Amino acid sequence: MTRGDGEVRPRGGWVTRPPSPRRANRSRPSTPVTRNPVAAAGRRYLHPVPNTTLPPRLGGLAALAGNLSWSWNREARALFAAIDDRLWHRVRHNPIDFLAQVDPARLAACAADDVFCARYDQAMHWLQAETGNAETWFSRHYPELAGRTIAYFCAEFGLHNSVPIYSGGLGVLAGDHCKTASDLGLPFVGVGILYRNGYFDQKVAPDGWQQDSADALSLDRTPIRPITLPDGSPCVVEVMLDGQPTLVQAWELKVGRVPVILLDTDLPANRPEVRQLLSRLYSGGVDMRLRQEWLLGVGGVRVLRKLGIVPHVWHANEGHAAFMFVERAREHVQQGMSFADAVKAVRKASVFTTHTPVPAGHDVFARAAVEQVVGPVWLEMGIDADSFASIGFHPEHGPTAFHMTACSVRMASRVTGVSKLHGEVTREMLQGMWPNRPANAVPVGHVTNGVHLATWMANPVMQLLDRHLGKGWGFQLDDPATWEGILKLPDDELWAAHRELKDVLFDIMKVQARRSFAQQEMTAAQIVGAGLLLDRHALTIGFARRFATYKRADLLFHDPERLRRILTDPDRPVQLIYSGKAHPADTPGKTVLQKVYLATRDPAFEGRVAFLEDYDMHIAHLLVQGVDLWMNVPRVPLEASGTSGMKAALNGVPQLSTIDGWWAEGYDGTNGWAIPGGGLADTARDDAEQAAKLYDILENDVIPRYYDRPSRTATPRRWLATMKHAIRVAGRQFTAQRMVTEYTERYYVPAMAGGDLPDDPPVA
Q1: What is the longest distance spanned by two Cα atoms in the chain?
Q2: Homologous superfamily in CATH for domain 490-734
Q3: pTM above 0.90, yes or no
Q4: pLDDT in tens, 122-134
């Protein structure tokens, strides 16, 4: 592909379909085609940008905006920015909103500009390659599996901030999984829920208490469109809920060549209370959540059937999707199988990934409530109510509870955690389901999480790698030599790229703070807390994630006086930027958030603590790319993986963390700092000891290393060595390409090929 300036680029801007050295000797197929599963079902897709008139020469901009693949292609992103940079930033990189507001005269001028049109042609060429039936990694390596589909069920998908149907790490991980499946050409379809009110919007009151609100999602400002059948009718299925029929409609979100199907009950034919069931993510209490999960599992299977999609692999990403297994068992029985054989058939084709060792992260419903919601479905499964309840039996919760993780483990033969340490913890947690085995013999593996490089690595860093690793470095993501080359990057150029990203963060923070003050949305004290007084030359530490108590956002405030001395050192100042949301029902988490927020107003800290409201993927990008150091201090061993530190590291931002989750595998002594110990049963003592170690590392290593330079504006060469190793390790070990390739080779392909697997179910 050729850019408008004549440079030759690998297809995809950065390369999305690298070869695998592990399978380099496989012959290429004669007809390497991986078809979009939904497209193969013959559905129609409505125009992605309503009420927008585009010049004929640029008519393809609508299609580009209607597929989220633009979000991980830097040339495509730059194309929209070139039309109207200010508007592009004002709509927070939402191309559909952008095209609805852009000046038609400006579009006409672009259509007459030969240079712009050359860039446009390149983007359209790329879009065709990214979404079409071109040769892919999967089609090259597994031609015999063409047409066999992987169905990936998840309660949330974090794909872009313009589509707010996610809350945090689980959803963003699912989004990165889908993007990478598209890059690699997996025959993949996602199944989730269309939350019309999304996740909640966050405002923080002057007293620091989080205020939750929600606005209805404007679907015409998203690329989400209803799926219609060949006869033009909407794709609607029926699910029995509380003994009454409920209609579920299917919508589609295009993610490269991967369709993500979203379910919706806001239909006039449904009861008023049912219409709102799928409106909010993780809200409405346990009863609403139970019904959402029943509709996701059963409705998702039935939509796929109606579309003619026949998955050979069914992947439940967390226990929220467990009822998908139940519905498939019911189908098998209705087709003539015994229940025992139906369970074996379901298990053989199923993968289950659990994401948390925290008990509150595993949904447990009262047996009576489940029976009320699902009705006597056991009759269609050829069993009685007690046998149905035993599907969700967990020995620690007894026969009156239905445990969604236990259900998933019983119904899937391939069970994984999301890091090596989490796999060990999960085997211990589930050992009671195999009472005759030691924990290390429990059949649970792990695939360590990874992040989608093209989504999270900033343009200046990519451009630096282009210059020094060669334009084809993206073809070699799984080659260790690629990442060893990071160590040879020129210090001054890497520091300049980082400074550019830090300036972007600080500029946006200050613009937003001034705008909020002008609109009287914040008090003067709150404006200071929004970062108006931060110094862009000072060591800046970022912390952004869900405000669950075990993540210990307030650990750094354990000794306020010691922290004050660290932050206000006149020669080596330090500043903190926090962001994140507490679950609306998590009062302890809101209390931690309040403590952190009030610190932004404490004169003792001299304006060196900031909090950014309404954390989402847009803010996440700014922080992981623009701070100097990433802090992650969960209570060991409660962080299953964590991915924010991976994203930061890909941009040369080292991590300071407890040795938990991915850091237990990622830390090598060169790429950041590890806080030793942790995991004490006495949480107060654990916090005190780990806070002391955190201060020691900051005072004795981190801060001296950052300021080891002739002046505050000089290049910190020792710090840059740590930055380079951060990129090296993250790129070599923690990309989503490695993650999805591992899922494919270890779990998807064996299931798709129909190979026999020793069936090793837990005790009922």
Answers
A1: 78
A2: Glycogen Phosphorylase B; (3.40.50.2000)
A3: yes
A4: 999 989 988 887 7
